[in-house]
Automatic annotation (TrEMBL):
Keyword flag Ubl conjugation: no
EC class: transferase
Protein name, as recorded: Sensory/regulatory protein RpfC
Keywords: ATP-binding, Kinase, Membrane, Nucleotide-binding, Phosphoprotein, Transferase, Transmembrane, Transmembrane helix, Two-component regulatory system
Subunit structure: At low DSF concentrations, interacts with RpfF.
GO MF terms, alphabetically ordered: ATP binding; phosphorelay sensor kinase activity
Limits of the Histidine kinase domain: 642-863
Domain PAC: 448-500, 572-624
Amino acid sequence: MKRTPLFSSSKNKPVFPFGVRHLLPLGVLVLCLGATLWAWGAVKESLEKQANLLYAQKTNRLKQELVSRLKDHEQVLLGGLGLFAASREISRAEWQKYVAAIRLDQNYPGILGVGYAVWLKPSELARHQQKVQAEGFSDYQLHPLGERENYTSIIYLEPFHWRNQRAFGYDMYSEPTRRAAMDRAKDQGGTSLSGKITLVQETEKAKQQGFLLYLPLYKKGLPTDTIAERHRAIQGFVYSPIRMNDFVLGVFGRLPTDLSFHIFDGSSANPSQTLFDSGSVNPTSLPLDYRPRYQSEAVVHLFGHSWTYAFSTLPEFEENLSAYVAHMTLVGGLLVSLLLTWIILNLQANRERALALAEQMTLDLRTSEEGLKQSQRHIEALFNTAPVGVLELDRSGVCILVNPWWETITGTRQVEALGQGWLKVFGQTDPTDLTREWEKAVQGETLRVSEFKLTRPNGSEVWVILRVSGLFSEAGELNGFIASLSDITDRKRVEEEQATVGAYTRSLIESSLDPFLTITPEGTISDVNEATVRVTGIAREKLIGTQFCLYFTDPEKAQKGYSFVFERGEVRDYRLDILGQNGQVTPVIFNGSVYKSLKGGVGGVFAAARDISQLVQTEKELQEAKLIAEAASEAKGSFLANMSHEIRTPLNAILGMTQLAFEAERDESQKELLTTVVDSANSLLAIINDILDFSKIESGKLSLEHLDFSLAQETRSLFKGLEFTAQAKGLELTYKAHPNVPDSLCGDPLRIRQVLTNLVGNAIKFTPSGRIEVLVEMLRQSEEGLRLQFSVSDTGIGIKESQLDGIFESFNQAQVSTTRVFGGTGLGLTICRQIARMMKGEVWATSVLGQGSTFYFTCLLEPARGEVFAAEPHQVEPPDLSGLKLLVVEDNPVNRKLMSKVLQGLGIKLHMVSNGREALDLLVETRVDLVLMDLQMPVMDGIEATLAIRGPKSPVLDPQVPVIALTADVFLEDKKRCLAAGMNDFLSKPFQKAELFRLLSKIKNQKQHAPVGREA
């Protein structure tokens, strides 16, 4: 059996080979280690339990003793209440005797005193101050000064030493933290603990955090069962000011040195709310890397307030623990286990050492002999098969051995080379270089001759590399030479081809007007073309070897683009700015890609930069032109908005006054004239609306609503308004909906009515006689929605086919004469087409001149999201609005007069003002049910006034009063501004009486169903 020695022959150290004989020491080691670990774990667990128990006891003691002291002091305050309850009135001397008997400094250290603060109404303040001044305190004055709803004043505070005298007359109710604790005591009728404060007794020297303890004192004989009763019965507060550091030290006397603890005000450990820090009172120097063994937090709720305790151990805590016992158990057990194992192993090893040593020596000898033979065979195989020609020469330079590859490379047979001198062995090679290199070999150098051509006996040439080394004895004597010859013909051919390709590539790069450069994986420049030199103004040799990103205005962005190339393999059109040596900035588009090395890895990055200076200049000019165009569009929109406002304001008065005159007029001929005025004003209003919509379309600000509506209700309302015009011309107007068209839909009903009104209105306008038919059908239903098609057919004058497309262009009609005969701006169909396209539909027409036309309108709608209820019809007759209080804010006197006439006789209590400032002044003193607010007014506009009404510091009696915008500003942006400011609705001028009455009736109904408190 083969044996391995336990001890090496040179060092005599045990080596522990594994075998059956080692099971015994291994078993002993495992058992001993197991027992050691069990004992160590048991001791450690026991010590940990003791430490946990000790930590819990110490922290609980700290919490309980502080709480206990506060509860003890509550009894002192209750005694003060008892003193008031037992006497009709407590004098300053009686209060002084009571506090002196308590002996605060001995029994309750840290508590500054026990005091009494009286509750005062503003009407009682002067009499109270006179009373205290009459007691001998001529300088007494309640502070801080200022008007407040209620006051308190500290009138008793004992002991009345210099520190407590600073609080004499102080109104604790004026400070939020104290007020919160006093309100809690007053509301709950019990003890209340304040939040963290700085007592007024504090000075700049040795300032501490503090808190207050309050008990409410109620007037004798008054009920205190409810909060409201306790508010009415409050007489004052018995309280104590407490300095936190003095309080804690007074409880414990001496702080523990093995624990650190903090007390925070509130239910979280917020450093900004620190009440007490044991480290500031009892500083302890801790190592920088010290980590407490135990840390904990606890929230204590007491007297309606919370404190958070944060505890952590100090080094002394851990020093008092017997942790070394567990360590000694572990170390001792390990030492015993290892010692036993070592003894057993050495006893076994002594027996085997001699046998193993002898056997190993025999084995080494055999192995050496076999290795020598194997090496000889390997050398012979390499000599005969290596693809390198090998030649051995004696010290005189005569060939004594060549391998087969020498014959292959040189073309000289082995038998011809043997016995020849070294020059003849190399055939027709120029001997000059060979002689020089051979002489170097004699000196002991290993040489590599530069590549040269060797001429074979058959005249062919081959490129080779020759290496020659001398063979020296141990004494340093030259015994001969070894020469090797490698064929590099293929490599030379590849190098020549690469040189040709490189020259061609270089010429292409240099001919480019764009900067080209190659960059290493490390980010340094390895090559550049002349264009790069020209753009940067830096010589090629100075660029090569420097960081690529340094030549850009934003090096970080350049480095990021370079990283993109490695992440993605390439980067395209990456925008950068080259910074030239003279400070000139050249904008470029950077393109780069990774190129491979000969080994297949990443060789670097090939980058090209295209100069886009002209493109950047063009973009700048286009951007400037765009800004000019946008400014012009904005100016036009602003002009149209102002024009609309200025026209609608008098138009509101015209329509309103005309309607009032029409209702009062009995003469039919006069009514006919008034009707003409209304029709003309409405035509003017329609033209204004068309111009505004067209402006919105041009600026891209026309938007759609997304509302549930009833199609039947909308069309019924639409045709009710158009039937009168059609009947006046003797036309038959019919409407039909296909059965497959649902009634409840979701979309923009106002815009649908606008398109249909325009199409049907045009049909009525251009149809002298006959009929007009309106049909709606559903083309298809899909996941996208419901595609409806409306068609309006008439028997009117018709349109030439060649003019059909032109009628949808802005300010265009089929013929110039049409405008003269029928009127119109030519904007209606343009607006209709844009609205249809916004609804993912279209508007088009078919027509036969002289026979009539059919206009088609398609749109994409959705099914209604909920149940659609029919709206109540607009109220035309004046409703019952008696008792309603209304404020109209309008700067135009004519419109104020119109509103007064419209609302006359309806029982409304009407207030009118001319600007927002006057409205605020009125609402400060008067409650109203509704405010109708104009927007554009002098002094203060409607938006500013509404923000003031709704603001957190609103001065008005009812900040939630409904506010309705009544304005000639009709853009969507105007409506959004109104709603954002807090307005409830939006009514545009000129308004309809029915719409106004509907709003007023809605407010009246809300008022009738409002809670009683809201009406107060």
